[in-house]
């Protein structure tokens, strides 16, 4: 049965048996979008990876990213990001609570910083509309006054009716557009000093 699993589905008072080809479901994602993170259902979560080379030192970028008050400055204005509660500095175990307007919905979210080093910040959703959300920021210093910021976001779309609106494709598109704005805003903020 190589990757095919039989499942029982309850449909009202009837019970029906269906076959699900999990290998085919996994193959929907290209090799570059596969994540080591897996959903609650065991399938790899969609992952969006973007990066930009910035004209600043890695230390300057890390310092900027380490101040939670800077988050709204580099977020797409359409998101209307509002930080509700957060520590002044990004620290491991710290929790940030914020509100955004995404895909026509105002959502309150909460993330916990699970890994914070000089070159990496990883935040995981503890409360929000998606079933799962992990944002990893990696900083690579080039030693010439420039650095590369790579953002890797893995997510599992919401369940229920919201999942019909917030599809994988719409979430991916929103992330990509948001990152484009973010990198331009980051460069402008860092140049302004």
Automatic annotation (TrEMBL):
Protein name: Uncharacterized protein
InterPro entries for this protein: START-like_dom_sf
Organism: Fuerstiella marisgermanici
């Amino acid at each position: 049965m190589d990757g095919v699993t039989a499942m029982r589905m309850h449909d009202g008072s009837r019970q029906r048996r269906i076959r699900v080809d999990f290998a085919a479901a996994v193959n929907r994602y290209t090799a570059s979008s596969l994540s080591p993170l897996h959903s609650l259902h065991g399938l790899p979560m969609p992952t969006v990876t973007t990066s930009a080379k910035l004209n600043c030192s890695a230390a300057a970028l890390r310092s900027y990213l380490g101040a939670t008050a800077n988050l709204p400055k580099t977020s797409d204005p359409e998101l209307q990001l509002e930080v509700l509660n957060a520590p002044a500095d990004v620290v491991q175990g710290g929790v940030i609570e914020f509100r955004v307007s995404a895909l026509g919905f105002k959502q309150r979210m909460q993330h916990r910083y699970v890994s914070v080093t000089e070159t990496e910040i990883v935040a995981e959703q503890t409360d929000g509309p998606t079933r799962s959300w992990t944002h990893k920021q990696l900083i690579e210093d080039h030693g010439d006054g420039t650095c590369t910021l790579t953002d890797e976001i893995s997510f599992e779309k919401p369940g229920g009716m919201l999942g019909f609106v917030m599809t994988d494709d719409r979430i991916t598109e929103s992330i990509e557009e948001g990152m484009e704005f973010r990198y331009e805003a980051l460069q402008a903020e860092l140049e302004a000093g």
